[in-house]
Amino acid sequence: MSRTDLHGIAEVMSLPCSVSVLKGRLSLEHLNRSLTVDTTGMLDKSRLDGFLCNANGRILDKLMMCRLEDEMILVGNFASGKTTRETLIRGVAWNEEITVMDGDGAIAHLRLVGDAPDRCIAGLGIDPDDVTTDNWTEYGSALLSRSGFNGVSAIDILIPTTDQAVFTVLLEENGAVVVDADRRELMRIELGMLDHREMNESFLPMDLGLEKLVDLAKGCYPGQEVHARLDSRGSPIRGIAKLRLASEIGTGRLKLPRGGSIIVTASASTPQGTVALAVMPLRLIEEGELELDGGLVAEVQSL
Hints:
Elements: E1 10-15, E2 18-23, H1 27-34, E3 47-53, E4 59-68, E5 71-76, H2 81-90, E6 99-102, E7 107-113, H3 117-122, E8 137-139, E9 142-149, E10 152-160, H4 161-173, E11 176-178, H5 181-191, H6 224-232, E12 238-245, E13 252-255, E14 261-270, E15 273-281, H7 282-287, E16 289-291, E17 297-302
Parallel strand pairs: 1-11
Antiparallel strand pairs: 1-7, 2-5, 2-6, 3-4, 4-5, 7-10, 8-9, 9-10, 12-15, 12-17, 13-14, 14-15, 16-17
């Protein structure tokens, strides 16, 4: 997606998610034992993203975290909340007083994406310089933080679901437009915004180019041995890329006529045909072109 395809100010995406809340004096230490990132240094309103993995190093959930005083808000993948909470509870020692609570449906995750999302939040009276990638900024009942995808700035917003409709109207009054599910999925694929269709037990973080969310120096966590072993071998052998092709393509494992396979995680229609996300050997990404069944050829673009 080129910048000319972006809305002049911003589009509002409502992202399906799960929400869990941890409370207790040792919550940060417990999360540090459980996740791929070091949570021990998180301060009030800090933001940190990381993975919850299984013993084989594969992704159980991707968590976007916010510390609010003595509570930790964990925004995870769609429909993964119950499993994530059960996993976290199992890791609580008998002498630790940590409460893991179900917040599903209580908090909505919005994302502003466009050519000038800062103009939208500035209209609300928020200084864009206060909205950073490693902290959350309060605005009424909302929390705002910054992220980016393929060079495109985005603003993540956490808001109680009871306030979502009113807050969305405020965004619209300041130039944003609300997108439907089809537009949201197209933008997600074009900009490489990975979700539960990619960040799941089928893949390691390294398969998705998300090594930055794995801190091998922080101490033990489930899956660390596998991640460390892969890191010692050097470059990963798989990666995720966009496919552009003239016709539709289904999701799932796709065998290639010359041998091997790729895993298509999502696809969306475009005026030119189809754009899709797929995990494949890095050598195929480097070649920039992929031959599929029936003589169909797809352009391969790295994320």
